[in-house]
Amino acid sequence: MSQAPALETFAFERSHDIVIEAPAAVVFDYVTNPQSWPEWIAVSHRVESADRPLVRGETFREQWFSRHEVQLDWIVLEADWPRRWVAETHAAFLGPIVIRYDFETLPGGECRFRRTVGNPARPKAPSDEVVARIDAEAATALGNIKARVERGYAARAAARREAIATAMADIHGLVGTGAPDRHDLSKVRERLVELASRSDLFPRGDLPPPLPGSGGRSILYRLAEDEDHGFALYANASLGGYGTPAHNHTTWAVIAGVHGSELNRFYDRSEDGGVAQRGEFEVVAGRGVAFMPDDLHSIHIDAPLLNFHLYGRGLEQLDRREYYEADSRQWRVFPAHSDIRDARSGRA
Ligand SMILES: [Fe+2]
Description:
Blueprint: E1 10-20, H1 24-31, H2 37-40, E2 44-48, E3 59-65, E4 69-80, E5 84-91, E6 95-105, E7 111-122, H3 128-175, H4 182-196, E8 218-224, E9 230-238, E10 242-243, E11 253-259, E12 262-269, E13 275-283, E14 288-291, E15 296-301, E16 305-313, E17 322-325, E18 330-333, E19 340-342
Parallel strand pairs: 8-19
Antiparallel strand pairs: 1-7, 2-3, 3-4, 4-5, 5-6, 6-7, 8-9, 9-16, 10-15, 11-14, 11-16, 12-13, 12-15, 17-18
Helix pairs in contact: 3-4
The structure holds fe (ii) ion.
């Protein structure tokens, strides 16, 4: 009886990286949508998958061509937005193929994207010629990703600036020069909901929430504000797990949903000096709420979201906003907000 020859295999891995002038989240959301692959890598002919970034456990199919057409069935092993994404497939001629994408946020806010392709059990070691071809293909692919992501990001920023400027001009017209009443504010709410409906201009990556584990739960991006600090529009990007006590604003305020859900609870001042809830409302895409300066609300955010908060005056100027501290049954004053990122140039 003859002995089968030992099956010796070779582990091979190759990494390539490139710096892209866009937030890591934008790069992540582009390359982890496998529908993008045929746009930037020549060997990827067609992909059947959901047209969005895929999460752990999702599968997709790729028509791939090297010497002949091959069908690859992939599974996503890891999706740690916006830092790392790993997927695996199996090819008869190569054994397992693992691709890993790493996204590093650089000090200037740009992203270093690293793509690593591994063949942990190749039937034989690749020749120098094959390695040189892999490097050349990767350089082309990464250059394509950089060009497409940067072009899309800059075009969105310009379109966003224009849409915001038009909406704010309309809102100025609706409010006029005096203090708006509830009827005026309902019109402002409708206009802000209309701006929020342009979700293509406000993808989660362009105005990202804090990195998970960084300590913060929300970031406020300033999208517009008059020179005298009137008509201040912010995007609130939250990871969720965030809420506020009941509070007023000391100016008019309007909220509209872009992605995700923010529960608003409404209150009256009660006879014993506290608050009594009188209703609640989920702010999601297509809906908004408006408040007069003395109206009371609290917000409650469970999951990641992006929404708009528009105030009659900028948050840095609002140093008399009261909130009700339930534990001590006391009204206190919010310090004026100071940690706001300027996104008016279009780049957060
Ligand atoms: Fe509020």
